[in-house]
Amino acid sequence: MTVFPLPPGSTIGILGGGQLGRMLAMAAARLGFDTAILTPEADSPAARVAARVIVADYADPAALRTLAGISQVITFEFENVPAAAAAELQRLGAEVAPATRALAVSQDRLEEKSFLNAAGIGTVGFAAVDSEADLLAAFQRLGPSLLLKTRRGGYDGKGQSWVRRSDDPAAALASLGNLPCIAEAPADFRREMAVIAARGRDGEIALYPLTESHHENGILRRTSAPAKGSPRLFAEAEKIATTLLIALEYVGVLGVELFEDDDGRLLVNEFAPRVHNTGHWTLDGCEVDQFEQHIRAVSGWPLGPTAAIHHVEMTNLLGEEAGAWEKLAREPETRVWLYGKRQALAGRKMGHVNRLSRLDGA
Amino acid sequence: MTVFPLPPGSTIGILGGGQLGRMLAMAAARLGFDTAILTPEADSPAARVAARVIVADYADPAALRTLAGISQVITFEFENVPAAAAAELQRLGAEVAPATRALAVSQDRLEEKSFLNAAGIGTVGFAAVDSEADLLAAFQRLGPSLLLKTRRGGYDGKGQSWVRRSDDPAAALASLGNLPCIAEAPADFRREMAVIAARGRDGEIALYPLTESHHENGILRRTSAPAKGSPRLFAEAEKIATTLLIALEYVGVLGVELFEDDDGRLLVNEFAPRVHNTGHWTLDGCEVDQFEQHIRAVSGWPLGPTAAIHHVEMTNLLGEEAGAWEKLAREPETRVWLYGKRQALAGRKMGHVNRLSRLDGA
Q: pTM, whole model, 2 decimals?
C-alpha cells in the first residue's frame, strides 16, 4: 500500500523509453527518486538514465508484475498504453497516475471530443464515421472538406487525411485501413496554441503560461512562449484547462492543444495525458519544469511554481537537424537538449533547443 | 583515437559514484551523451542515472581497461583518484580530463600551495612538517597557533587540527597519524569566497560569478551567490582563476576556495580539479550550470555562458536535514536537489536547496 507523498528513495515506474521518459527520469533523479523503465526497445533513451530497465512488451504480464513490484507509483510517457496493460496494473493493485480514465478517453478521438463537449469545452464540429453513409452524412452536416482521422492510434500527423465531398468515399476510408474514424470540420484558426496543466493528488492545480505552436507536416516544429494575448484569452485557457483537469479527476501533467479561432475564442484540438512537446520550453523557461511537475504530482508532492522566467522559442530538432549540435552549442542564448537516439531518421525528434530572451515586462 | 569535439552518443567515463558524478551524468544526458561510472560502491547515486556502471576498486586494472574501452573521454568527480589509476589510464592511452597534473598537484596540500605561490597567487604562510623539529620551526616562523593538516587525503575538515605552540608537538603529529603534514598560518579573513572556473580544450576560459561561502565544522553549509564586492575584488578573483587554469593547462571545471583578508585582498585556500559544492548554486542560478560546463569542456564543446540569472542561497542538506523535503518542496522560491543516498548519516551531504531571489540590478 503506497502512502503519499512518496519519500525520496522511492521508485517511480514509467511505461515508455523515449525522450519524455528520459526527461521524466532526470527530473525524478533531481528529487532523489529512482526510476524503473518498461519499454520494448533495447537501449532506449530513457533506459540510459534510469536505475532499472525492463525490456518487454507493454502488455507482458510478467514484466508488468515486476514493474509493479518495484515501483511505488507507475506513470507513462505516452497515451497509447494498451488497455490490457492498464487493466493488468489495476488488477495488481499498482498505483497508476494519471488514472486509466484519462488514458481511455484520450485514446479515442471520438470519445475525447464527446467528453470535451460534455464538459462544456468547445471543439470543432465532428462526426463518427464507420461507413460511407456516415461520411456522406458528415459532409452534409459539417461541410465539403473534412479531416478524416482514425479514432485510435496515430500521432504527429499520422493516421489522418483531408477528404473532399468530391472524393471517392470508399477510397478515403480504405486509405485509413477502413478503421473506425472521426470526421472533423476544418478549424478556422488564427493560431495554434497549447497549455500545460498540472493537478496534484490533493486537487491543487497549477497552469503554465499559454503558448503558441507552429506545426509543419503535422509535427510540432516550434513553440513560442509565453504567448501574447488578451486577459480574456488567458482566462479562457485557464478555464478550459481547469475544467478538464477536474472532469478527468486528473493527477499529473496534461498537455492541451488549442485553436484560437478568428473571433479570438479557444477550441480544444486534443489533449495528451502526459508531459508534452509543447511544454519543453518550461525546462529552461519556467520556475519548475513540466517534468519535475509531473513527478511531483504523481508522487503526491506539492506542485511547484510555474511562472515564466524567460521568453523561449523552442524548436524541435528533427532527423539530421540534430547534427548541428556544435553550431547550436555555440549560441549563447540557446540551451541544447539531445535525446540520445541512435538513428537520425527523417522527421524523428532527436532533440530540441530552447532559445531564451528577456521576458516582456521583466 | 578520440577526436574532439565529441559527438552526442559518445560515452563519458566518470571515476566516482557520488552526487557530483550523479549531477555530471544528468548534465551529460541532457547533451545526448551516455555515461559510464566506475565506483567501488554498489548502488551509488551516480550509477542510478548512468548508462553503464562498473563496480570495482578505482585501481582495478581490469575495471580501468573496461572503462577505457567504452569511454571516449574519462573524467572524475573527486581529486583523490589513486595515482596508480591515473597511471594505468595513461598507459591505456585513454583521454583523461582534467589532466593528471592537476590531480597530482591538488592531492598534496604542500605541492598545491607551492604551485600557487610559484604562479604568483597568494596563500596563507605555510611550512612542511615531517617532524617535531619542523613543527617548532614553523611556530617560530608563522606564529603561535597553526592549522596542521595531512599533506594528502582528508576533506570536509577531516585530517586537520589546530595546534598551539604550548601543545605537545609529538601528540599533535600523532593525532594526524604521524603522516607528512603541512602547517598553515591562520587566515585573517573577513569572508570565505569561491569561484568556479572552466577552461575548454581550445583554451577558452569562462568564469562564474564570485560567491561567498559559509562553513560549519569544516563542511560547506551555505553559498551566497553572486557575492557583493568591489570591481577590484572581482578583477582579482578573475586574475587568480585565469592564472591557475593556464598554469595547470587545465581542461574542465575547477573549484577555487578563497579567503578575502581584512585588506580586501584574495588568497587561495585550496582548489579542487572538479565540479565543486560551491558551484551547486549554478544549477538554478546561472545560464549554463557547472556540470554541463564540465561536460562541455572535457568533450571539446564550446563553453556555455556563465552569467547569473538569479541570486541564490545554496544550503547543503546534511544528514537528517534532508528529511524536511516535504516542507522544502512547498517553498515557492526553493529548488530541491536530492542525491538518492540510502543512509542519512550525520553530516553526510544528502542534498541541497537553491533558494532564488531577484538579482540585484536586474
A: 0.96
